[in-house]
Amino acid sequence: MPKDPHSDLPAGPRHVAIIMDGNGRWAQARGRPRLFGHHAGAKRVREVVEACPDYGVKYLTIFAFSTENWKRTQVEVAGLMSLFRRYISKEARALDEEGVRVRFIGDRVRLDPKLIKLMDNLEELTKTNEKVHLTIALNYGGRDEVARATKRLAQDVADGKLRPEDVDEETLPKYLDTQVLPDPDLVIRTSGEARISNFLLWQSAYSEYEFIDTLWPDFTAEELGRLCQGFGNRDRRFGAVKI
Ligand code: IPE
Ligand code: IPE
Ligand code: MG
């Protein structure tokens, strides 16, 4: 991978965000129920997280469940919620030992209290880790996030803590769920769909995108490496003209 001229780190993306799509089709291709695909998908996460330091990726954000995914059958939604509970309980220790700091973004209001407790505990357990920052988007929607942020911002204005004339591009992100996280440099979507499905709408304004055909349960650390390498060769202009 090319080196960043200003540091010893590879010139790869510092923050990678992944829309982990294709679990259902992966299972269907094997004649198995969709949940089988979700379980296989969950198993891929550890390898990908652990590979991040090799490619200079400090922040990894993964889309696990969208605000729109409640539209699925009750069986699939319940199965996913139970998978999240099991996944957190089972993986907490390993993630902590690997130096991973875990955060969750999304609206917790609709989530089961038992799941919320596990999420809180994992955030607390890993809060001093800094090798990799893993953010899990659970009941997350970009529009929902902006709406919730705006509600809190409006409340601060109503309470006299913020003046409308002071609201700018620096103010709003402080109210978003992502708060301290840098914007994603690279957004990857697996499974061949070329859309963002309400993921990180504000934050990905200048992200590079990679839409790949691999179904999420087949995604590997090597593939992440290849995409990070490709990122290093891109010319990010942010609206300016380079001379
Ligand atoms: C992504 O896989 C996981 C979630 C949305 C929870 P899908 O379940 O969307 O898989 P496909 O797109 O139906 O193959
Ligand atoms: C996006 O995938 C959400 C997650 C990966 C969690 P979907 O499968 O829900 O997106 P659409 O419905 O194809 O847009
Ligand atoms: Mg899908």
Automatic annotation (TrEMBL):
Residues that bind Mg(2+): 21, 208
Family annotation (InterPro entries): UPP_synth-like, UPP_synth-like_CS, UPP_synth-like_sf
Needed cofactors: Mg(2+)
Top-level taxon in the UniProt lineage: Bacteria
Keyword Magnesium belongs to the record: yes
Keyword tags: Magnesium, Metal-binding, Transferase
Record EC number: 2.5.1.-
Transmembrane segments: none
Gene Ontology biological process terms from the UniProt entry: polyprenol biosynthetic process
Entry's cofactor comment: Binds 2 magnesium ions per subunit.
Gene3D superfamilies, alphabetized: Decaprenyl diphosphate synthase-like
Family to which the UniProt record says this protein belongs: Belongs to the UPP synthase family.
Quaternary data: Homodimer.
Protein name in UniProt: Isoprenyl transferase
Organism: Falsiruegeria mediterranea M17
